[in-house]
Design goal:
The chain is mainly beta. The protein has five helices and 37 strands. The protein folds into two domains: 72 residues, Carboxypeptidase-like, regulatory domain (Immunoglobulin-like, Sandwich), CATH 2.60.40; 628 residues, Beta Barrel (Maltoporin, Chain A), CATH 2.40.170.
């Protein structure tokens, strides 16, 4: 139905010329005449009929577009970002997201160049972006940062990919927008826009996989209500799997259970929008039992042997026993958006998060059922932003405040790894954006203050902790230039920071999930980073090429490294790892592209290389992904009947080099050799009435290759998983 609502993103150009301007969020545009009056302006936008307007004088004009009402056959859309944003960002391809919703967030992001996995065995993974991970990356779900106990490398983000409609990776130093934990970048997850919910719709997903004999089911529903302006969405899913298997042996105690629930309602009244949502994430995961080793001699023998002993391989089981971890994460979120006028917008968001983490170890006297680590982190966060947007400029100001309380639950009969702590974070920022013809610029600044108060007792009953205060000024300068309609150059220079975490400052006990004793340093300073990243994006119909080049200097970079010391208790022998900091430099290049060889045949690839150096000790940083190259060739065609409406065959290869840039003194064992993995898939789309059925058969590690990943914390004790055959069925109605 036609109306007078402003249209954002319409392209306008002189008739016969390619130079364009784009309407802003208020539907406005401005042309600096390069020819004498009169002339013709051509306006175009997908979903609307093209319009040609005859301009006789220099008075303001109004262009009204008619909707292009056509019934189109189903097709694939290949798009690119041409807006004024100067952020260097990449979005997960819609088809890739649809095919991989059953996976963890880190595994989904692996399809983007520059993103690798930091693993703790076969069930736990978190993303690495340009060599940085953990607290250096901000993960935002519907605009609010995920607040969980992210201080451990074995802690996977508590994110349900099924609830995400789009996922974007921002590679710059993004502390300006997202706070002190975005020194290395940000991951942005967004639910389906409410204006696209117009009737009762949904999707049923079923998934089964052979490695771990896993099963998964998911249900998504959305729709309107009898109340005008009121919409709702509901999502739930469940996953169960057992012991994973390498090509040669089972990995004992690597089962997993995941339960997720997401619900939201939205109410639109005139120019105001109100939203309330609730998310619950529940994950139970076993920890490879062969990582807990008796005495020092046995530990050193295990490092040399590099895999479980035959006596530790018990075959397949769904049982999850100690050592294991269980995490429950609840999020209640409120959002209010008000269009104050045609150019002013107010946004207010509040989120309460409750993160309950329990870790269990093998213990005597019947205590294995009692957690050895039991912590509850409660966070309250408020985000207020005010936006003023003109024809070619935009000003964003914001205030963010957060309180956190992390408590160790009594009754574990164990000294906590980290002390209880309270934290208060306050930040204020301002961003100015300006666009003129093919150029776009951004300038911003932010001030943060953090108060961190920790208190606990060590193994000997001695009190420790302290009241720490951190504050910092962050700045950002970005620019983009549209060379032509097919090529965009972006560059971003950002100064960001991150305060040390409780674990880095105060840990002094065995961390069961990583099978090591971790020792903090209360004298650690805040990290401060200066990152420059430049990106070239070339696109032409189905073809595209992205090249990102970056350099990131981090003052007081914090990392953990093994010492020559060990501790031994009833659970086994554990190496002592010490937190330290030095100045560091990380530079690298990411390349990703796709090329249509023929009408139904396309080739895609991405590659990443990182050089990471400790500038003080003159050695290499640990846990930096090696050179990688992944590529895929795919055949896509349309069928002639409803049961084979579209078909896709794909064959891919993942190649990972040996990490030659490592330092023996900070490695417990030499880096593993290079390896490759072959993957193949076939996908068939069918129509059942007006609904779609998508069936996909995927075979990972097709050749059942034996390998170890350098960024797997359990590579010292076992190999990576072997062949996995996965069948996924999605029914959309």
């Amino acid at each position: 139905m036609d109306n007078t609502a402003p249209i954002h993103g319409a392209n306008i150009h002189y008739e016969g010329h390619r130079k364009t301007v784009t309407t802003n969020f208020s539907g406005e545009f401005k042309f600096n005449p390069e020819r004498s009056l009169p002339f013709k302006l051509v306006t175009s936008l997908v979903g609307y009929e093209n319009d040609t307007t005859y301009v006789k004088n220099d008075q303001p004009i109004t262009i009204r577009l008619k909707r292009d009402i056509k019934k189109l056959a189903e097709t694939q859309v290949y798009g690119h970002q041409t807006g004024a944003k100067t952020q260097v960002a990449q979005q997960v391809n819609a088809l890739s997201l649809s095919e991989n919703r059953n996976r963890s967030l880190a595994e989904v992001l692996k399809t983007i160049s520059g993103v690798q996995l930091l693993q703790t065995g076969s069930t736990i993974s978190k993303p690495i972006i340009n060599g940085l991970y953990g607290n250096r990356l901000a993960i935002l779900n519907d605009g609010m940062k995920l607040e969980s106990q992210q201080w451990g490398n074995d802690h996977a983000p508590e994110i349900d990919v099924y609830a995400a409609h789009s996922i974007t990776v921002v590679k710059g130093a993004e502390s300006l927008r997202y706070g002190g934990e975005a020194l290395g970048g940000a991951v942005l997850l967004s639910s389906k826009p409410w204006n696209r919910v117009d009737s009762l719709r949904g999707q049923i997903s079923l998934n089964g996989f052979t490695n771990g004999k896993g099963m998964q089911g998911a249900l998504n529903l959305e729709g309107n209500s009898p109340v005008a302006g009121l919409k709702w969405s509901l999502n739930g899913n469940y996953t169960k799997s057992g012991n994973r298997k390498t090509p040669d042996y089972y990995l004992n105690n690597t089962g997993q259970r995941i339960y997720n629930l997401n619900a939201a309602i939205d109410y639109q009244y005139k120019n105001a929008n109100f939203e309330i949502s609730y998310k619950q994430y529940h994950n139970e995961a076993g920890i490879l039992s062969s990582t807990h080793i008796g005495d020092l001699a046995s530990f050193q023998e295990r490092l040399a042997y590099g895999r479980p002993y035959p006596s530790e391989v018990f075959g397949f089981s769904y049982d999850i026993e100690a050592p294991r971890q269980e995490v429950k994460h609840d999020v209640l979120q409120l959002a209010y958006n008000q269009q104050l006028s045609s150019d002013k917008t107010l946004s207010v968001k509040y989120a309460f998060q409750n993160n309950h983490r329990q870790e269990y170890d093998k213990r005597r006297a019947g205590r294995s059922a009692t957690p050895s680590m039991d912590m509850i982190l409660r966070s309250h966060a408020l985000d207020v932003s005010y936006t003023v947007e003109g024809i070619d400029q935009k000003i964003i100001t914001g205030l963010q405040a957060q309180t956190q309380v992390n408590n160790n639950v009594v009754g574990t009969f164990n000294t906590p790894l980290i002390p209880n702590y309270n934290a208060i974070n306050i930040g204020a920022y301002g961003i100015y954006q300006w666009q003129r013809n093919r150029f776009a610029y951004e300038l911003g600044a932010r001030y943060d203050f953090k108060n961190f108060d920790a208190a606990g007792y060590d193994f000997y009953g001695k009190a420790y902790g302290g009241d720490n205060q951190f504050h910092n000024l962050s700045t950002n300068l970005g620019a983009s230039y549209s060379i032509d309609n097919h090529m965009i150059l972006k560059s971003n220079l950002g100064l960001a920071w991150r305060a040390p975490s409780a674990q880095e400052l105060y840990s002094q006990n065995i961390h069961q999930s990583t099978a090591r004793y971790e020792r903090g340093d209360a004298a650690l300073k805040a990290e401060k980073g200066l990152k420059w990243i430049t990106s070239l994006n070339i696109h032409e119909k189905k073809n595209f090429l992205n090249i990102d080049v970056y350099a990131n200097f981090i003052n007081h970079y914090i990392y953990v490294k093994p010492t020559t010391e060990y501790v031994q208790n009833l659970a086994g022998t554990f190496p002592i790892w010490q937190y330290s900091q030095n100045n560091a430099l990380l530079t690298g290049i990411d390349i990703q592209g796709r090329y249509a060889i023929r009408e139904h045949l396309e080739y895609s690839a991405n590659s990443s290389f990182i050089y990471a150096r400790n500038l003080d000790d003159h050695n290499y940083l640990p846990l930096i992904p090696p050179l990688s190259y992944t590529h895929e060739i795919a055949f896509l065609t349309k069928g002639n009947n409803r049961w084979m409406k579209d078909v896709k065959f794909a064959l891919g290869q993942e190649i990972y080099a040996k990490q030659f840039m490592s330092t023996a003194s900070i490695e417990m064992a030499p880096p593993p050799p290079a390896y490759q993995l072959i993957n193949g898939s076939i996908s068939v789309g069918s129509l059942i009435g007006n609904n779609k059925l998508q069936t996909r058969l995927l075979v990972e590690n097709l050749l059942n290759s034996t390998y170890k990943s350098y960024t797997d914390l359990f590579r010292y004790y076992s190999h990576g998983v072997g062949r996995n055959i996965q069948l996924t069925i999605n029914y959309t109605f």
